[in-house]
Amino acid sequence: MTLDLPDAAATQRLxxxxxxxxxxxxxxxxxxxxxxGKTTLVQGIGLGLGISDPIVSPTFTLVNEYTEGRIPLYHMxxxxxxxxxxxALYLDQYWAGQDLPLGIVAIExxxxxxxxxxxxxxxxxxxxxxxKRRARLTSAGEFNWAAYLGNLPAQFA
Length: 157
What we know:
Blueprint: E1 2-5, H1 8-21, E2 27-31, H2 38-49, E3 63-66, E4 73-77, H3 83-87, H4 93-96, E5 104-108, E6 120-127, E7 133-140, H5 145-149, H6 152-155
Parallel strand pairs: 2-5, 2-6, 4-5
Antiparallel strand pairs: 1-7, 3-4, 6-7
């Protein structure tokens, strides 16, 4: 599915809808150039979850945990890492549900992961010359996004 996002507010609104709709255990793999809207999308997810803390990119901390919402939000940014370095972080603890409560895991620069967690929702954000954004959503594994986001295209038509 591809959605046109005319501005940052639409990107944030998409995130808010994801935050309201997705269940605990959802993994979002975010891809896009610098400035494509990955963090804006995650800020919207936080709004949809009812998180009041400011959501900022964890570029230097690698992971920010927000536990006050409907379910936890684990926001990761792998921009500064090489793929081999991501393996040593044991990020799977965030989606395994063993050491931490299940929540929504949003991973910026997910293409740096050696192994892609499944099931997951892949969101590729692109910008155009007119400064508009486009989001392409695909699933990896058995992630049934339509069960949670079935009317999403109509909201961005």
